[in-house]
Design brief:
255 residues, mainly alpha, three-stranded mixed beta sheet, 8 helices
Length: 255
Amino acid sequence: MIHLPTAPWAHSLFDLAAWGGGGAMGWSLYRWRLAEAVDKVAMKVDGWYFTALVAGAIPGAWLAGSFNTLRAGGALSHSVVGALVGAIAGVEIYKAIRGVKGSTGAIFVGSFTLGVVIGRFGCLFSGLADQTYGSPSTLPFAVDLGDGIGRQPVQVYESAVMALFLLSYLAGLAARAPWAMRRGFYAMCLAYGAQRFVWEFFKPYPRLIGPLNIFHVLCLGLVIYGLGYYLGDLRRERRAQVRALSVPRPDHQPV
């Protein structure tokens, strides 16, 4: 068992690092690879886009987090997966009203992912007060957060998997791979939802449906959203390629 020093203020420290690192990542990726894609999005949306995003993210974060902690007898709290689901709902409603097609989230992929990678260590080092700790465990790498009980280091699991996704995403951008350039946001939702769905089984949260808690349900929604929109965009891309190949060209004319 690994004994960790913890302090409630650690969460704020890592939150600041996550926000700063995420912002720097977003700006760097924009300058490096995403300027064209982001500029195309900017031509299709207006200020109401960000209003819709915030209007979904804030209540989504607090409703999901508080629903979970209040059922366990705790206090109000917030959740990053609730914020993500709420933001997606707000933006997709906005896009439906405005008739905007395709992904508009490219600029958020690197920022969100790096934010999770850093921010989860804030959850870990803030200890039991954060209420995101794992279930008791006898594993040799279980962590003691101050109560003498070894627990699953679920925060480290999540951070590690999302770090691997970030590396894959950066490699995809470097190669200008369509999955990263066009469908990176959908891939991120799929990866984040799938990995967190697994880790939720290692948390002592109140169950909502059978063995599933509220975050299982939200993560399942992210997986369905990410996979559905990813495949839909892939089909559109393939149809566009077929149409382009079927257009007669000068070298198709008889001589």
